[in-house]
């Protein structure tokens, strides 16, 4: 067990959700790398309400190694919350969030640490090859980053996940952000600090399956956009002005036409089309507003981001 007052150089933070098969291979590959860094370290597992034997597996490892710690959340709160718990409890001078499925190669930690020692506060691990992802996933991801970055004030780097090194300064800055709905990639970027990039090739999962399917990813993207941009709300103002402008000119045209050519009745089809079109546009506008109001509602409850069931090791 890690002593209360011990401050390691590195804290490795690993959110785990149903990862019973990957814990042991993960430790087998990361521990030798951490030894090589010549830094003192701790590895914190956050069990995010796994329903398999993940917790037992972690506990059996923790029992034999005093550099390992475990935080057990009371249910599945999602990766962002698990990561937040890890950052809150990490004691290291630098923190490295990493997935346990070995998709983030542990060897890269050597490069992350050497850049940190050069003086960078943020060292991003960038995937240069996404061939381990499906075409649909890499395409939608790329579209999301482009859209997100074009409408939000921050730049979330493309092809960069949560795998990175952040210094204590950055961790403390992140802890100042009180929001409940935590889009960590955005939060990491929002706090700033001097950063650099190291590149790697993303491997397929060591075992098990991804927890992020299409619908979850869509909601994740919505969280990202609504957390860091109000453009989707404001766009309706401009769309409204545009539609009113068009309606005004079209109305004027009809009046002039009626004065000159008299009244004619045709126009039922175009009327119905326009009523339906504007009905649809208004509903979309309302829907977007609903997205934000829903998030405001959740946020206003000030619920904690996660609940810890027990953390006997801390
Ligand atoms: N994860 C988590 N809680 C969740 C979903 C995932 O802690 O609700 C963890 C998971 O155990 C893994 C990491 O987040 O360590 C990344 O998950 P995954 O590999 O499923 O995502 P992908 O790599 O496919 O984006
Ligand atoms: Mg993965």
TrEMBL record:
Entries under Gene3D superfamilies matching the protein: Spore Coat Polysaccharide Biosynthesis Protein SpsA, Chain A
Localization per record: Membrane
Membrane topology: Multi-pass membrane protein
Highest rank taxon of the organism: Bacteria
Ranges that cross the membrane: 235-256, 268-293
Entry keyword annotation includes Cell membrane: no
One Pfam family linked to the record: Glycos_transf_2
Keyword terms: Glycosyltransferase, Membrane, Transferase, Transmembrane, Transmembrane helix
SUPFAM superfamilies the record matches: Nucleotide-diphospho-sugar transferases (SSF53448)
Domain (Glycosyltransferase 2-like): residue spans on this chain: 11-173
Entry keyword annotation includes DNA damage: no
Protein's recorded name: Glycosyltransferase family 2 protein
Organism: Grimontia kaedaensis
């Amino acid at each position: 067990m890690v002593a209360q007052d011990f401050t390691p150089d590195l804290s490795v933070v690993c959110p785990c959700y149903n990862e019973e098969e990957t814990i042991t291979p993960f430790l087998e590959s990361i521990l030798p790398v951490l030894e090589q860094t010549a830094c003192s370290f701790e590895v914190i597992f956050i069990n995010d309400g796994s329903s398999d034997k993940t917790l037992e597996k972690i506990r059996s490892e923790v029992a034999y190694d005093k550099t390992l710690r475990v935080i057990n959340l009371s249910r599945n709160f999602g990766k962002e919350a698990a990561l937040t718990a890890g950052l809150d409890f990490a004691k290291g001078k630098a923190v490295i969030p990493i997935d346990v499925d070995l998709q983030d190669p542990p060897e890269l930690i050597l490069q992350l640490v050497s850049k940190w020692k050069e003086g960078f506060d943020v060292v991003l691990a960038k995937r240069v090859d996404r061939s381990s992802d499906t075409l649909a996933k890499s395409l939608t991801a790329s579209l999301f980053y482009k859209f997100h970055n074009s409408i939000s004030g921050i730049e979330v780097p493309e092809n960069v996940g949560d795998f990175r090194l952040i210094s204590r300064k950055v961790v403390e800055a992140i802890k100042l952000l009180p929001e409940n709905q935590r889009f960590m990639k955005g939060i990491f970027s929002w706090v700033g600090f001097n950063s650099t990039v190291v590149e790697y090739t993303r491997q397929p999962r060591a075992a098990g399956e991804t927890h992020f399917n299409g619908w979850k990813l869509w909601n994740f993207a919505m969280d990202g956009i609504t957390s860091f941009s109000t453009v989707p709300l404001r766009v309706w103002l401009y769309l409204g002005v545009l539609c009113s402008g068009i309606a005004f000119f079209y109305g004027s045209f009809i009046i002039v036409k009626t004065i000159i050519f008299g009244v004619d009745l045709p126009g039922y089809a175009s009327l119905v089309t326009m009523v339906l079109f504007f009905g649809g546009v208004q509903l979309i506008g309302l829907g977007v507003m609903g997205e934000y109001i829903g998030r405001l509602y959740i946020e206003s409850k000030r619920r904690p981001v996660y609940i810890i069931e027990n953390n006997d090791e801390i």
